[in-house]
Amino acid sequence: ELLEAVPEERRPSPDDPSFSPSKHPPRQGGAAAGSVVAASEASSSLKSTFFLLIVLASAWVASSMCYSSGATRLLSGGDKALFPDPWLLSGVVHIGGAIVCKAIAYLTKYDAEQDKEAVDTMSASVLGLMFGLENGLYAKVLCDVAAESRHDVYVLRPLVLAASGVLAGTNKPSARLVVSVVCVLLGSWLTSTGGAGFLTSFPWIALAGGISIFRWVFTLNVLPRHGGLPSLWCFAGQMMWPSGLVGFEIAFMSNHGSYRQLLHLPNPLEVLKIVPAIALACGLQLLVEFRVVQASSLWILGLCIPLLQVSTLGLSVVTSEGDLTLSNLLGVALYGVALIVEAAAFLKERAPGTDANGYLKLAEESQVSSPPEPWHSAQEARNRQYAQPQQIKSEPLRKPHHRN
Protein backbone atom coordinates (compact mmCIF):
# COMPACT_ATOMS: atom_id res chain seq x y z
CA GLU A 1 0.00 0.00 0.00
CA LEU A 2 2.87 2.37 0.67
CA LEU A 3 4.50 1.57 -2.68
CA GLU A 4 1.26 2.27 -4.51
CA ALA A 5 1.35 5.84 -3.17
CA VAL A 6 4.86 6.30 -4.65
CA PRO A 7 5.14 7.33 -8.33
CA GLU A 8 6.06 4.42 -10.57
CA GLU A 9 9.35 5.93 -11.77
CA ARG A 10 10.54 6.26 -8.17
CA ARG A 11 9.59 2.78 -7.04
CA PRO A 12 12.45 0.30 -6.31
CA SER A 13 13.07 -2.55 -8.69
CA PRO A 14 11.44 -5.88 -7.72
CA ASP A 15 14.84 -7.69 -7.96
CA ASP A 16 16.61 -5.17 -5.76
CA PRO A 17 18.52 -7.30 -3.16
CA SER A 18 17.99 -4.72 -0.45
CA PHE A 19 14.25 -5.49 -0.52
CA SER A 20 14.52 -9.30 -0.44
CA PRO A 21 12.13 -11.06 2.00
CA SER A 22 15.07 -12.70 3.76
CA LYS A 23 16.42 -9.32 4.89
CA HIS A 24 13.02 -7.80 5.60
CA PRO A 25 10.73 -10.55 6.92
CA PRO A 26 7.09 -9.63 7.21
CA ARG A 27 6.03 -8.30 10.57
CA GLN A 28 3.74 -10.34 12.75
CA GLY A 29 0.27 -8.97 12.91
CA GLY A 30 -3.12 -9.70 14.31
CA ALA A 31 -3.39 -12.48 16.87
CA ALA A 32 0.33 -13.42 16.65
CA ALA A 33 1.46 -9.93 17.61
CA GLY A 34 -1.16 -9.79 20.35
CA SER A 35 0.00 -13.09 21.84
CA VAL A 36 3.61 -11.91 21.87
CA VAL A 37 2.63 -8.69 23.65
CA ALA A 38 0.49 -10.60 26.15
CA ALA A 39 3.34 -13.04 26.91
CA SER A 40 5.75 -10.14 27.40
CA GLU A 41 3.34 -8.36 29.75
CA ALA A 42 2.75 -11.59 31.72
CA SER A 43 6.50 -12.13 32.10
CA SER A 44 7.07 -8.57 33.34
CA SER A 45 4.09 -8.92 35.70
CA LEU A 46 5.58 -12.07 37.24
CA LYS A 47 8.94 -10.40 37.68
CA SER A 48 7.39 -7.39 39.38
CA THR A 49 5.32 -9.70 41.63
CA PHE A 50 8.42 -11.63 42.74
CA PHE A 51 10.30 -8.42 43.40
CA LEU A 52 7.35 -7.10 45.40
CA LEU A 53 7.21 -10.32 47.45
CA ILE A 54 10.92 -10.11 48.25
CA VAL A 55 10.56 -6.52 49.45
CA LEU A 56 7.47 -7.35 51.50
CA ALA A 57 9.08 -10.44 53.04
CA SER A 58 12.08 -8.36 54.10
CA ALA A 59 9.81 -5.75 55.66
CA TRP A 60 7.85 -8.47 57.47
CA VAL A 61 11.02 -10.05 58.90
CA ALA A 62 12.28 -6.67 60.16
CA SER A 63 8.95 -5.71 61.75
CA SER A 64 8.52 -9.15 63.37
CA MET A 65 12.02 -9.01 64.87
CA CYS A 66 11.32 -5.55 66.26
CA TYR A 67 7.94 -6.55 67.72
CA SER A 68 9.14 -9.82 69.29
CA SER A 69 12.34 -8.45 70.79
CA GLY A 70 10.63 -5.31 72.10
CA ALA A 71 7.75 -7.22 73.70
CA THR A 72 10.14 -9.70 75.31
CA ARG A 73 12.29 -6.85 76.62
CA LEU A 74 9.24 -5.39 78.37
CA LEU A 75 7.67 -8.61 79.64
CA SER A 76 10.64 -10.79 80.65
CA GLY A 77 12.10 -10.80 84.14
CA GLY A 78 9.13 -11.97 86.18
CA ASP A 79 8.42 -9.54 89.03
CA LYS A 80 11.15 -7.21 87.77
CA ALA A 81 9.64 -6.90 84.28
CA LEU A 82 9.41 -3.43 82.77
CA PHE A 83 5.71 -3.91 81.99
CA PRO A 84 3.26 -5.62 84.36
CA ASP A 85 1.00 -7.76 82.13
CA PRO A 86 1.11 -9.23 78.56
CA TRP A 87 -2.60 -8.61 77.91
CA LEU A 88 -2.25 -5.01 79.00
CA LEU A 89 0.78 -4.59 76.76
CA SER A 90 -1.19 -6.05 73.86
CA GLY A 91 -3.93 -3.48 74.45
CA VAL A 92 -1.52 -0.54 74.62
CA VAL A 93 0.40 -1.68 71.52
CA HIS A 94 -2.71 -2.17 69.40
CA ILE A 95 -4.21 1.18 70.36
CA GLY A 96 -0.90 2.80 69.44
CA GLY A 97 -0.82 0.83 66.20
CA ALA A 98 -4.35 1.94 65.35
CA ILE A 99 -3.33 5.58 65.81
CA VAL A 100 -0.29 5.10 63.56
CA CYS A 101 -2.26 3.31 60.83
CA LYS A 102 -5.08 5.86 60.83
CA ALA A 103 -2.57 8.72 60.73
CA ILE A 104 -0.78 7.24 57.70
CA ALA A 105 -4.11 6.64 55.93
CA TYR A 106 -5.06 10.25 56.62
CA LEU A 107 -1.73 11.58 55.34
CA THR A 108 -2.17 9.63 52.11
CA LYS A 109 -5.59 11.34 51.71
CA TYR A 110 -7.49 8.07 51.67
CA ASP A 111 -11.27 8.51 51.64
CA ALA A 112 -13.17 5.41 52.73
CA GLU A 113 -16.49 6.88 51.59
CA GLN A 114 -15.25 7.00 48.00
CA ASP A 115 -13.85 3.46 48.10
CA LYS A 116 -16.34 0.80 47.06
CA GLU A 117 -14.19 -1.92 48.67
CA ALA A 118 -13.83 -0.19 52.04
CA VAL A 119 -14.38 -2.61 54.92
CA ASP A 120 -17.43 -1.93 57.05
CA THR A 121 -17.03 -1.26 60.77
CA MET A 122 -18.81 -4.42 61.92
CA SER A 123 -16.57 -6.76 59.90
CA ALA A 124 -13.43 -4.94 61.00
CA SER A 125 -14.56 -5.10 64.64
CA VAL A 126 -15.13 -8.86 64.52
CA LEU A 127 -11.73 -9.38 62.92
CA GLY A 128 -10.18 -7.06 65.50
CA LEU A 129 -11.63 -9.11 68.37
CA MET A 130 -10.08 -12.28 66.97
CA PHE A 131 -6.80 -10.49 66.27
CA GLY A 132 -6.68 -9.18 69.84
CA LEU A 133 -7.20 -12.66 71.33
CA GLU A 134 -4.57 -14.10 69.02
CA ASN A 135 -1.91 -11.51 69.82
CA GLY A 136 -2.64 -11.57 73.55
CA LEU A 137 -1.89 -15.30 73.60
CA TYR A 138 1.29 -14.69 71.64
CA ALA A 139 2.28 -12.02 74.14
CA LYS A 140 2.10 -14.59 76.93
CA VAL A 141 4.62 -16.72 75.01
CA LEU A 142 6.92 -13.72 74.49
CA CYS A 143 7.35 -13.41 78.27
CA ASP A 144 9.95 -16.19 77.92
CA VAL A 145 13.31 -15.08 76.49
CA ALA A 146 14.13 -18.57 75.23
CA ALA A 147 10.79 -18.82 73.41
CA GLU A 148 11.41 -15.46 71.74
CA SER A 149 14.91 -16.51 70.63
CA ARG A 150 13.44 -19.67 69.08
CA HIS A 151 10.57 -17.68 67.50
CA ASP A 152 8.08 -20.20 68.88
CA VAL A 153 5.23 -17.84 68.05
CA TYR A 154 5.84 -18.31 64.30
CA VAL A 155 6.65 -22.03 64.11
CA LEU A 156 3.07 -23.16 63.44
CA ARG A 157 2.16 -20.13 61.33
CA PRO A 158 2.81 -21.84 57.93
CA LEU A 159 0.43 -24.66 58.86
CA VAL A 160 -2.17 -22.13 60.02
CA LEU A 161 -2.00 -20.16 56.78
CA ALA A 162 -2.07 -23.28 54.60
CA ALA A 163 -5.15 -24.56 56.43
CA SER A 164 -6.80 -21.13 56.09
CA GLY A 165 -6.16 -21.12 52.35
CA VAL A 166 -7.65 -24.60 51.92
CA LEU A 167 -10.75 -23.71 53.97
CA ALA A 168 -11.19 -20.46 52.06
CA GLY A 169 -10.85 -22.23 48.73
CA THR A 170 -7.87 -20.17 47.51
CA ASN A 171 -5.45 -23.12 47.81
CA LYS A 172 -6.24 -26.57 46.49
CA PRO A 173 -5.47 -29.48 48.81
CA SER A 174 -2.88 -31.77 47.26
CA ALA A 175 -0.10 -34.17 48.18
CA ARG A 176 2.48 -31.55 47.17
CA LEU A 177 0.97 -29.05 49.57
CA VAL A 178 1.03 -31.54 52.46
CA VAL A 179 4.66 -32.46 51.82
CA SER A 180 5.65 -28.80 51.51
CA VAL A 181 3.91 -27.88 54.77
CA VAL A 182 5.68 -30.72 56.61
CA CYS A 183 9.05 -29.69 55.18
CA VAL A 184 8.48 -26.04 56.11
CA LEU A 185 7.39 -26.93 59.67
CA LEU A 186 10.38 -29.21 60.25
CA GLY A 187 12.69 -26.72 58.60
CA SER A 188 11.58 -23.78 60.74
CA TRP A 189 11.77 -25.88 63.93
CA LEU A 190 15.24 -27.24 63.16
CA THR A 191 16.51 -23.87 61.98
CA SER A 192 15.66 -22.23 65.30
CA THR A 193 17.05 -24.81 67.76
CA GLY A 194 15.28 -28.10 67.22
CA GLY A 195 14.91 -28.54 70.98
CA ALA A 196 11.97 -29.65 73.08
CA GLY A 197 11.46 -26.23 74.67
CA PHE A 198 8.83 -25.50 72.05
CA LEU A 199 6.45 -27.90 73.82
CA THR A 200 6.19 -25.53 76.81
CA SER A 201 4.54 -22.79 74.76
CA PHE A 202 2.72 -25.14 72.38
CA PRO A 203 -0.76 -24.93 74.05
CA TRP A 204 -0.92 -21.12 73.77
CA ILE A 205 0.41 -21.19 70.20
CA ALA A 206 -2.06 -23.89 69.12
CA LEU A 207 -5.01 -21.97 70.59
CA ALA A 208 -3.88 -18.75 68.91
CA GLY A 209 -3.41 -20.66 65.65
CA GLY A 210 -6.98 -21.94 65.74
CA ILE A 211 -8.28 -18.39 66.16
CA SER A 212 -6.00 -17.22 63.36
CA ILE A 213 -7.43 -19.76 60.91
CA PHE A 214 -10.96 -18.41 61.26
CA ARG A 215 -9.68 -14.83 61.21
CA TRP A 216 -7.94 -15.31 57.86
CA VAL A 217 -10.89 -17.13 56.29
CA PHE A 218 -13.13 -14.21 57.26
CA THR A 219 -10.49 -11.68 56.18
CA LEU A 220 -10.48 -12.98 52.61
CA ASN A 221 -14.15 -12.07 52.34
CA VAL A 222 -13.59 -8.39 53.09
CA LEU A 223 -9.95 -7.67 52.21
CA PRO A 224 -9.82 -4.88 49.58
CA ARG A 225 -8.59 -6.16 46.24
CA HIS A 226 -7.58 -2.77 44.86
CA GLY A 227 -6.83 0.67 46.25
CA GLY A 228 -3.16 0.25 47.09
CA LEU A 229 -1.54 0.63 50.50
CA PRO A 230 -3.75 3.49 51.82
CA SER A 231 -6.81 1.25 51.96
CA LEU A 232 -4.79 -1.43 53.77
CA TRP A 233 -3.48 1.10 56.30
CA CYS A 234 -7.07 2.12 56.99
CA PHE A 235 -8.21 -1.50 57.30
CA ALA A 236 -5.38 -2.30 59.72
CA GLY A 237 -6.33 0.72 61.81
CA GLN A 238 -9.97 -0.39 61.88
CA MET A 239 -8.96 -3.79 63.23
CA MET A 240 -6.58 -2.54 65.90
CA TRP A 241 -9.09 -0.46 67.86
CA PRO A 242 -11.13 -3.48 69.02
CA SER A 243 -7.91 -5.50 69.38
CA GLY A 244 -6.68 -3.03 71.97
CA LEU A 245 -10.00 -3.09 73.80
CA VAL A 246 -9.80 -6.89 74.04
CA GLY A 247 -6.38 -6.63 75.64
CA PHE A 248 -7.57 -4.03 78.18
CA GLU A 249 -10.66 -6.06 79.08
CA ILE A 250 -8.84 -9.38 79.60
CA ALA A 251 -6.08 -7.64 81.58
CA PHE A 252 -8.71 -6.14 83.86
CA MET A 253 -10.43 -9.48 84.42
CA SER A 254 -7.28 -11.59 84.86
CA ASN A 255 -4.95 -9.12 86.60
CA HIS A 256 -6.69 -5.88 87.54
CA GLY A 257 -3.74 -4.91 89.72
CA SER A 258 -1.63 -4.42 86.60
CA TYR A 259 -3.35 -1.06 86.03
CA ARG A 260 -2.15 0.15 89.42
CA GLN A 261 1.37 -1.05 88.62
CA LEU A 262 1.50 1.30 85.63
CA LEU A 263 2.01 4.13 88.13
CA HIS A 264 5.13 2.43 89.52
CA LEU A 265 7.06 1.27 86.45
CA PRO A 266 10.74 0.54 87.20
CA ASN A 267 11.98 2.32 84.04
CA PRO A 268 9.20 4.42 82.45
CA LEU A 269 11.55 6.17 79.99
CA GLU A 270 12.60 2.89 78.40
CA VAL A 271 8.97 1.81 78.21
CA LEU A 272 8.12 5.04 76.40
CA LYS A 273 10.88 4.31 73.90
CA ILE A 274 9.94 0.70 73.21
CA VAL A 275 6.13 0.89 73.08
CA PRO A 276 5.87 3.30 70.09
CA ALA A 277 8.44 1.24 68.18
CA ILE A 278 6.61 -2.05 68.62
CA ALA A 279 3.26 -0.35 67.93
CA LEU A 280 4.58 0.79 64.55
CA ALA A 281 6.09 -2.66 63.96
CA CYS A 282 2.76 -4.35 64.75
CA GLY A 283 0.88 -2.13 62.31
CA LEU A 284 3.50 -2.64 59.59
CA GLN A 285 3.47 -6.40 60.13
CA LEU A 286 -0.30 -6.57 59.65
CA LEU A 287 -0.14 -4.32 56.59
CA VAL A 288 2.57 -6.43 54.95
CA GLU A 289 0.59 -9.62 55.53
CA PHE A 290 -2.44 -8.07 53.84
CA ARG A 291 -0.36 -6.96 50.85
CA VAL A 292 1.33 -10.35 50.42
CA VAL A 293 -2.06 -12.07 50.39
CA GLN A 294 -3.26 -9.54 47.82
CA ALA A 295 -0.30 -10.21 45.54
CA SER A 296 -0.24 -14.00 45.92
CA SER A 297 -2.07 -16.22 48.42
CA LEU A 298 -2.17 -17.26 52.06
CA TRP A 299 0.18 -20.18 51.43
CA ILE A 300 2.80 -17.90 49.86
CA LEU A 301 2.60 -15.80 53.03
CA GLY A 302 3.11 -18.99 55.03
CA LEU A 303 6.22 -19.76 52.97
CA CYS A 304 7.68 -16.38 53.92
CA ILE A 305 7.35 -16.97 57.69
CA PRO A 306 10.45 -19.22 58.17
CA LEU A 307 12.60 -16.46 56.68
CA LEU A 308 12.50 -15.03 60.20
CA GLN A 309 14.25 -18.10 61.65
CA VAL A 310 16.71 -18.23 58.75
CA SER A 311 17.57 -14.54 59.14
CA THR A 312 18.05 -14.91 62.91
CA LEU A 313 20.33 -17.92 62.35
CA GLY A 314 22.38 -15.99 59.81
CA LEU A 315 22.74 -12.99 62.12
CA SER A 316 23.83 -15.20 65.04
CA VAL A 317 26.49 -16.87 62.90
CA VAL A 318 27.79 -13.57 61.48
CA THR A 319 27.97 -11.93 64.92
CA SER A 320 29.49 -15.11 66.46
CA GLU A 321 26.66 -15.30 69.01
CA GLY A 322 25.74 -18.86 68.06
CA ASP A 323 27.13 -21.95 66.36
CA LEU A 324 25.84 -23.51 63.16
CA THR A 325 24.80 -27.09 63.93
CA LEU A 326 23.92 -30.02 61.70
CA SER A 327 20.22 -29.71 62.63
CA ASN A 328 20.28 -26.05 61.57
CA LEU A 329 21.70 -26.99 58.17
CA LEU A 330 19.13 -29.75 57.76
CA GLY A 331 16.35 -27.29 58.61
CA VAL A 332 17.60 -24.73 56.08
CA ALA A 333 17.85 -27.47 53.43
CA LEU A 334 14.29 -28.69 54.03
CA TYR A 335 12.94 -25.16 53.89
CA GLY A 336 14.94 -24.39 50.74
CA VAL A 337 13.60 -27.45 48.93
CA ALA A 338 10.00 -26.57 49.82
CA LEU A 339 10.57 -22.95 48.79
CA ILE A 340 11.95 -23.94 45.37
CA VAL A 341 9.16 -26.44 44.68
CA GLU A 342 6.42 -24.01 45.63
CA ALA A 343 8.02 -21.16 43.68
CA ALA A 344 8.07 -23.36 40.57
CA ALA A 345 4.43 -24.30 41.15
CA PHE A 346 3.54 -20.64 41.59
CA LEU A 347 5.12 -19.82 38.21
CA LYS A 348 3.34 -22.71 36.54
CA GLU A 349 -0.09 -22.00 37.96
CA ARG A 350 0.04 -18.24 37.47
CA ALA A 351 -2.14 -17.48 34.46
CA PRO A 352 -0.80 -14.88 31.96
CA GLY A 353 -3.88 -12.68 32.39
CA THR A 354 -4.08 -12.90 36.18
CA ASP A 355 -4.42 -9.65 38.06
CA ALA A 356 -1.42 -8.59 40.14
CA ASN A 357 -3.76 -8.73 43.14
CA GLY A 358 -4.16 -12.43 42.66
CA TYR A 359 -6.23 -13.60 45.60
CA LEU A 360 -9.86 -14.58 45.21
CA LYS A 361 -12.67 -13.73 47.58
CA LEU A 362 -14.99 -16.49 48.69
CA ALA A 363 -17.68 -17.13 46.11
CA GLU A 364 -21.22 -16.23 47.03
CA GLU A 365 -24.10 -18.51 46.18
CA SER A 366 -25.66 -15.83 44.02
CA GLN A 367 -22.48 -15.60 41.95
CA VAL A 368 -22.28 -19.32 41.19
CA SER A 369 -23.78 -19.90 37.76
CA SER A 370 -25.69 -23.07 36.99
CA PRO A 371 -24.07 -25.48 34.52
CA PRO A 372 -25.25 -25.21 30.91
CA GLU A 373 -28.02 -27.57 29.83
CA PRO A 374 -26.70 -30.51 27.77
CA TRP A 375 -27.46 -30.41 24.03
CA HIS A 376 -29.39 -33.63 24.02
CA SER A 377 -31.65 -32.42 26.85
CA ALA A 378 -32.46 -29.24 24.98
CA GLN A 379 -33.11 -31.23 21.78
CA GLU A 380 -35.46 -33.62 23.56
CA ALA A 381 -37.38 -30.67 25.00
CA ARG A 382 -37.83 -29.20 21.51
CA ASN A 383 -38.96 -32.57 20.12
CA ARG A 384 -41.57 -32.88 22.85
CA GLN A 385 -42.76 -29.38 22.09
CA TYR A 386 -43.15 -30.09 18.37
CA ALA A 387 -44.77 -33.47 19.03
CA GLN A 388 -47.67 -31.89 20.86
CA PRO A 389 -50.71 -31.23 18.68
CA GLN A 390 -51.13 -27.67 17.59
CA GLN A 391 -54.16 -25.97 19.06
CA ILE A 392 -55.94 -23.92 16.44
CA LYS A 393 -57.52 -20.82 17.78
CA SER A 394 -60.96 -20.30 16.32
CA GLU A 395 -63.69 -17.85 17.00
CA PRO A 396 -66.85 -19.20 18.70
CA LEU A 397 -69.64 -20.26 16.28
CA ARG A 398 -72.46 -17.85 15.96
CA LYS A 399 -75.98 -19.02 16.66
CA PRO A 400 -78.07 -19.35 13.52
CA HIS A 401 -80.46 -16.54 12.77
CA HIS A 402 -84.07 -17.75 12.85
CA ARG A 403 -86.75 -15.90 11.05
CA ASN A 404 -90.06 -15.44 12.74
Structure description:
This protein has helices at 31-75, 86-107, 121-141, 145-150, 157-168, 175-192, 198-222, 228-254, 257-261, 268-295, 298-304, 307-318, 326-349, 375-387. The chain has 404 residues and is mainly α. Helix 2 crosses helix 10 (268-295), helix 3 (121-141) runs antiparallel to helix 7 and helix 8 (228-254) crosses helix 10 (268-295).
Characteristics:
404 residues; mainly alpha; 66% helix; disordered C terminus
Topology diagram in text:
Elements (H helix, E strand, L loop, with lengths): L30 H45 L10 H22 L13 H21 L3 H6 L6 H12 L6 H18 L5 H25 L5 H27 L2 H5 L6 H28 L2 H7 L2 H12 L7 H24 L25 H13 L17
Helix pairs in contact: 1-10, 2-3, 2-8, 2-10, 3-7, 3-8, 5-7, 5-11, 6-12, 6-13, 8-10
Short précis:
The chain has 404 residues and is mainly alpha-helical. It is built from 14 helices and no strands. It has helices at 31-75, 86-107, 121-141, 145-150, 157-168, 175-192, 198-222, 228-254, 257-261, 268-295, 298-304, 307-318, 326-349, 375-387.
